[in-house]
Request: fold
Amino acid sequence: MIFELLIVLGALYVGSRYGSLALGAISGIGLSVLVLVFGMKPGNPPTDVIYIIIAAITCAGMLQASGGMEWMIQIAEKVLRKHPNQIIFLAPLCTFFLTVLVGTGHVVYTLMPIIADISLKKGIRPERPCAVASIASQVGISCSPISAAVASFVVISGTNNFTVNNVQVIAITIPACLCGILAAALISYKRGKDLDKDPEFQARLADPEMKEYMYGSTASVLGKEVSKQAKLSVFIFLAAIGVIVIYSLFQIFGFDIRPRFTQTLADGTVKTTRLAMNLIIQIVLLTAAACIIIFAKAEPKKAVSGAVWQSGMVAVVAIYGIAWLADTYFSNYMSVIESGLTGIVEKFPWMIAFAFFAVSVLINSQGATLVAMLPLAYKLGIPGPILLGVMPSIYAYFFIPNYPSDIATVNFDRSGTTKIGKYLLNHSFMLPGLTSVIVSTIVGSILVRIFY
Reply:
């Protein structure tokens, strides 16, 4: 059992070193060793979750291809430039809500150089808003009704007798994560030396070429013209999210409007079931993607080459490989794991948050973390509300600063204040990341105690 666990961890470690698609593909090596060499019964790949992710990134990819996402970035930039003194709070809120709307944190790459530019020109140490904004862009994933993480939680919870929909999930995660982001912004408000007192920055400023590099250009998307089709694509996209939210709200208030189907079983019994919410999400998002193509003139080829589509498909492959590997291992040893952890789980069920955090450090995906660990948590007998409360703990890939959004943020900050330290872990994202996750998890756990 221990040797096979080392194979699982080894596959995850090697995959994380290569990054991108390799994380899912190298999980396939671990899976082949467990199944073909050791004869373990293969688990089940998370097909329902994968289908939702594909529908979501198809719709978001079309939004990007139509130019609608650029319009959303322009709106965010207007807010930031109107209130530059409050950028430490407004920047992470902008990146957070962009992710909530689109379902992926990779939408912020255009906004990050703008945040760095505004803060530098205002004399604010760019590390302060940039690091928190990068953290907030990823925190928003567990708060988006169309993200892989929320879809994973809803689908897996439904199969484990904890019926919850997307709106009910984000009703806990959004306020919890907002508290965490604001706490991270507060703790970063005076973090590091002011620019006029920072010897490293002053040394860069004394170099004429470096000064020109830092101050010579202005990052902005305000001058770009936004077409009517781009704006239309945003309205279509928001309408699709609104339809999903309406279905969920009607469920919450006891008026389920989902279509019903009758089925005659083999014994003659007539069974009536409602259309599953995960199927409604897929249908609505695919329809919205088609409408953006037809009415907003989005080019499918452009969507496929865009950052949203590419990052989304990387997530699909990662979740596919990691989740299948994890389910294979845990399903074969569930009885042993249950007997060893039952006592601990009964006394301290919230400790599953540490497991979520540790796995997220390894696999760099919140959706994959849930798909890999949530079924195990339910089989250990941890109640669904507790798991919902600790859901913010699935974000931990800031811990080792190798995630694309963090690396990009370091590069976008021309002042050099946002950086990865000499000892790897002493980087700009550690303090705001830990603060956000700890506060969010505590607040989320309190909220589920109140409402569940």
Notes: The CA atoms of residues 53 and 148 lie 6 Å apart. The first strand starts at residue 260 and ends at 264. The chain has a mean pLDDT of 88.
